[in-house]
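To the wet lab folks,

You asked to see what we're planning to order before we commit. Fair enough. Below is the target structure as tokens, and below that is the sequence we designed to fit it. If anything looks off to you, flag it before the synthesis order goes out.
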């Protein structure tokens, strides 16, 4: 009964909307401007309840009214149509915004926009913002209508409450590579940085993404830094929503990839923020934090600060974050200054403790990989041995996952080559996994030596 009743209401509702659409057409054809304005405003308020099929029929009428409205004689009709189209553009997953742009609305608005002011200009800008932001295909239409130049020109002279709409439009356009090229060539990159600093979070996030894309160009990267992009992105990383944090953290990573800016990014206070990201729920956030930490750690003072944060994470209860922290330590262990940094951070006793704890297998596997890497350095080998790692590694040879056994065997082989530590691994040398790893490492080293000899001969 309920299903039958629901099916019976749908045609009735559709018929009612059809009648409303026909009535609206009649009002428009009556040429009573005041009544047409009133009806158009009412349509805007009801548009999100109407079937999309009805709205699709309405858009060409609204665009026709918009383009026939004089900015000197019928600004009320112009504003009403723009207001209605602005509401419609937000619906339909971008389909309606695309229709609005394709029917010529953006082109006309751009032509009259510089000649309007006050509330009318505000409504036109909001309409443009929504059409551009919600319509994926509309950016190039907008650009082809020289919209970018119009927006940039207005930004140079507009300093009132309308500026935020201009910045939001620009942040969307700047996601286009061609638009970024024009923005850079005209010396207007400062507007992108400004749009990342203020306005709605979604707009600031788009601007941060544009900054990251611009930062891939070395010349533009210096300009962004000089304009304060590091500080703006750091604010978003600290105070933004999830999307803003991810986008801004990635953009900062792009900027920090130049050696001259590594220290500046760290001095902005980003290391604790990336530490928070590493401990957060977002997998992408963890991956970005790992990558950026590896970049920032090229500078030794940064490496020590990062290692101290990683130690705090390893001492916590977040298994996913601990695994990610171990991955970063594994990467840092290959840096020339890493050995002193990792020891000074207090990481080694904690790594050994985790190996004997009830942590998940994934965490232990990552930690054992770090220990295997550290075992190549004499000082770290001694520190690991003094922390009691050898019996733990020996036990793993008897009972552990394949990765755990490989990492333990690799570390123990390195211990066996240290005259001071060799007597302490007597229980491991006859274990098959130890012997297999020993043979494997011998082969790898022989191969590396052969390649090195060939390179010398070529020289």
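Sequence we intend to order:
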């Amino acid at each position: 009964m309920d299903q039958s009743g629901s099916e019976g209401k749908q045609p009735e509702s559709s018929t009612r909307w059809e009648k409303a659409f026909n009535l609206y057409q009649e009002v428009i054809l009556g040429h009573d401007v005041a009544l047409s304005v009133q009806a158009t405003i009412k349509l805007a308020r009801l548009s999100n309840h109407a079937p999309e099929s009805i709205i699709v029929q309405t858009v060409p009428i609204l665009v026709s009214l918009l383009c026939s409205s004089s900015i000197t004689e019928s600004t009320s009709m112009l504003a009403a149509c723009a207001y209605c189209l602005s509401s419609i553009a937000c619906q339909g997953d971008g389909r309606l915004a695309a229709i609005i742009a394709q029917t010529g609305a953006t082109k006309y608005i751009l032509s009259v926009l510089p000649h309007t002011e006050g509330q009318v200009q505000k409504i036109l800008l909001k309409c443009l913002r929504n059409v551009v932001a919600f319509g994926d295909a509309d950016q190039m239409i907008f650009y082809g209508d020289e919209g970018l130049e119009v927006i940039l020109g207005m930004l140079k002279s507009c300093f009132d409450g309308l500026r935020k709409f201009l910045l939001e439009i620009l942040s969307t356009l700047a996601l286009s590579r061609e638009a970024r090229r024009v923005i850079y060539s005209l010396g207007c990159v400062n507007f992108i940085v400004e749009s990342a600093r203020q306005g709605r979070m979604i707009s600031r996030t788009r601007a941060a993404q544009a900054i990251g894309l611009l930062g891939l160009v070395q010349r533009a990267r210096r300009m962004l830094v000089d304009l304060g992009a590091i500080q703006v992105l750091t604010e978003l990383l600290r105070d933004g929503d999830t999307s803003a944090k991810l986008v801004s953290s990635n953009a900062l990573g792009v900027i920090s990839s130049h050696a001259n800016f590594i220290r500046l990014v760290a001095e902005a206070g980003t290391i604790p923020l990336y530490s928070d990201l590493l401990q957060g729920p977002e997998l992408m956030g963890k991956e970005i934090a790992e990558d950026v930490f590896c970049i920032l750690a090229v500078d030794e003072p940064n490496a020590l600060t990062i290692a101290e944060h990683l130690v705090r994470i390893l001492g916590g209860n977040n298994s996913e974050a601990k695994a990610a922290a171990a991955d970063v330590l594994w990467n840092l262990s290959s840096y020339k200054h890493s050995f002193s940094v990792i020891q000074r951070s207090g990481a080694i006793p904690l790594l050994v403790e985790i190996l004997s704890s009830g942590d998940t297998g994934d965490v232990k596997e990552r930690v054992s990989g770090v220990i295997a890497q550290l075992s190549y350095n004499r000082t770290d080998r001694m520190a690991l041995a003094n922390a009691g790692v050898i019996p733990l590694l020996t036990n793993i040879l008897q009972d552990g996952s394949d990765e755990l056994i490989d990492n333990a065997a690799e570390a123990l082989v390195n211990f066996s080559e240290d005259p001071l530590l060799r007597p302490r691994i007597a229980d491991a040398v006859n274990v098959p996994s130890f012997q297999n790893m020993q043979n494997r490492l011998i082969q790898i080293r022989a191969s590396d030596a052969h390649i090195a000899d060939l390179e010398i001969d070529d020289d």
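Structural context that might help your review: Residues 160 and 352 are 61 Å apart (CA to CA). Residues 2-29 form the longest helix (28 residues).

Thanks,
Computational group
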